[in-house]
Amino acid sequence: MSGSHLSNVWFSVTPLKVASGHGSWVTTVDGEEYLDFAAGIAVNSTGHAHPAVAKAIGDQAQRFIHAQVNVYQHDLLEPLAAKLADITPNGIDTFFYANSGAEITEGAIKLAKQATKRPHTIVFSGSFHGRTHLAMAMTTSKTGYRAGHAPLPSGVFVAPYPDPLAADQDAEVAAALRGFDHVLKALTAPDETAAVILEPVLGEGGYIPAPPAFIRGIVERCRQHGIVFIADEVQSGFGRTGKWFAVDHYDIEPDVICMAKGIASGFPFAALGTTRALDDKWPTGSHGGTYGGNAMGCAAALATIDIMSEPSFLPNVVARGEQLQAGIRELQREHDVIAQVRGLGLMIGTEFHDAARVSAVQQHCLHEGRMILMNAGTYGTTLRWMPPLVVTEGEIDLALAAFSAALKATA
Ligand SMILES: Cc1ncc(COP(=O)(O)O)c(C=O)c1O
Questions:
Q1: Of the candidates 388, 366, 331, which has an alpha carbon nearest to the alpha carbon of residue 45?
Q2: Is 395's C-beta closer than 6 angstroms to any atom of ligand 1?
Q3: What is the fold of 52-309?
Q4: Could you state, in order of their start, the residue ranges of all structural domains in the chain?
Q5: Measured in angstroms, how far is the CA atom of residue 67 from the centroid of ligand 1?
Q6: pLDDT (tens digit per residue) in 200-249
Q7: What is residue 154's predicted lDDT score, i.e. its pLDDT?
Q8: Does domain 18-49+312-409 have CATH number 2.30.40.10?
Q9: 136 Cβ inside 6 Å of ligand 1
Q10: What is the 3-state secondary structure of 207-239?
Q11: Ligand 1 atom 13 nearest Cα
């Protein structure tokens, strides 16, 4: 008996109990400091307890905490939508708010079904779209997310995602696109297919940026068949990849973009962006939620966008990402257990030949290096790097030193 009153259902990455955080660091109840390169699973974009975000939330709490969006509109809903319209890809100008990633990906599918009057969805192998029932049905990165929960909603079909380790990447992309065409011929006809939902950088599936020719091929097919193309940027959005959104690296315009995690620096908040034309087909009252558009969440998101709009913010993400990738590549030369280093901005995956080694390195970094890291990938072979986006050059050096020591100690 642990004596805890907390549910057993949460898995634990570390045994740490934390009392506070600032920037890239958390302090435990025992007063020990840890470099937090998990950042709340890519959430604490502006670092822990950024003063401007904390102030915005505090000030807003004095005005009102919750102003239910169906009952009346509070005065931050439109200003936030206007800012989001500025930073999201061309054509995205209309927004719906919720509280978590899963709610937003489910909302996106509900919109696509209503707008097209079609029933089915296509996802990609390695996908992660959340833990509610439809989101679980759309999640294929690990059996553990789905096991024991059947029956899951039907009407979700899985197309292949290119393997980043394939030697011939052009052939791999061509095969994945043929696989997608096969799904449209064999499993769900275009006129039955409402939506395709894709993570431009696969997240839980292993931090794998989609090859440009693949993502463009998928968008082309969606356009050809009137299928709604949804970019799930819950993890890759809000500066994580060094641009506002990962799709900005690919010069594509999604019909719907899903945002959460980094959007409000850790305050539970999520947004769906779409075109006015598509939103006009979403019948009023067919979707909603008690807390969507929460006033403190809007205040936190507005403050987050202000911070990220500072001219040095996104260039820091790019520079720190390059520094980190270069440092890991240097170590790859000495440690052949590292199969691949990949990623965009500060969404970096280090692929190992051996999952046990990933876990040993993670443990060494935690206990000896005082650095928190997580893994990813269907086989648990990816070590993922997702520090706060305000991470400094010195902190990246510290992280690389801890990683280097862990690689040596676990060899
Ligand atoms: C790409 C992606 N979509 C959706 C989700 C689900 O978000 P949430 O945990 O806020 O429901 C996640 C969470 O990791 C994610 O990475």
A1: 388
A2: no
A3: Aspartate Aminotransferase; domain 2 (3.40.640)
A4: 18-49+312-409, 52-309
A5: 25
A6: 999 999 999 999 999 999 999 999 999 999 999 999 999 999 999 999 99
A7: 98
A8: no
A9: no
A10: CEECCHHHHHHHHHHHHHHCCEEEEECCCCCCC
A11: 130
